Target: Carboxyltransferase domain-containing protein
Amino acid sequence: MKAPTPRLEVAGIDSLILRLFEQIDEDNMPWMLAASLRLKEVFCTALIDLVPSYTTLLLHYDLTLLDAQQVRALVAQAFEGLQPAVTGSGREHCLPTWYDRSVGPELALLAERTGLSETEVITRHSDHTYQVFALGFAPGFAFMGLVEELLATPRLSTPRKRIAPGSVGIAERQTAAYPVTSPGGWNLLGRTPVKLFGDDIEGYSLLQPGDRVRFVPVERAEFIRLGGDDSPLETLQ
Model:
């Protein structure tokens, strides 16, 4: 695959959006990682932040060190001769997950919508290795994909006011585990006991763009043994 040519869009007085792709695809990530690394190298101390997403990179630079022309020249330099990052350069995570209606109330809904049994829904969701595309929405919230089309389900029309940390859900062809207590409108299938965000984790977030994640089904007893909270969702509202 040919290296992407970024389309530059002004996001602010000191920020650019680098649009590398038009469609979400797991094959984008090696290029996104390679581009991130090269941009960090060429911008060096003039780089304030670099935020990857599904198809774009948000570049925030120090305008006291660079003008707009210099920024565009450095971006061109970063993409010259760019090669994709080696597949598998991110970390791999296995998240034990207790799939159950009490903590995943949309499990039954997905079974009904797809014509599958709840066991089949669990199997299909947990059989795939998901790519972490981006962090956002809440601290440590990792957007992952792509969920197979059969399981793709729209967000809830009315978001819940409070979702427990570790709750695993689906929205369209994305999946995620809520890292902290927060509102949310994703379709919940279960819960993981793994701590996903905290000041005792390097980089604060366990999951980072480029990482790969598997959800591993476990029984309630194992979930609790690993430190999981099995409080039913309705008691948390």
Q: What stands out?
A: The chain has a mean pLDDT of 92. The radius of gyration is 20 Å. DSSP finds five helices and 13 strands in the chain.
